[in-house]
Fold this sequence. Notes:
Blueprint (H helix, E strand, L loop, with lengths): L1 E8 L5 H17 L5 E4 L8 E8 L2 H9 L1
Amino acid sequence: MIRLHAISTVEYGLFREFLEANEDLDNLCNERGWATATFLVPVVGGGNDFVAEYEYPDLATFQAESRA
């Protein structure tokens, strides 16, 4: 299994818009049958951190979806 953690620091005051954009992207991935994200917001550390975690069954799937 391949796990990708996409970590972002969101500009203060724009968290809602950032989350909505990521939800739209996740919906598009779901429509295409690709891996979808689990969204995480750490409780320790910066107050504006955002993590999107993706799981892929293998490296070939990760590479194919990344290229597409």
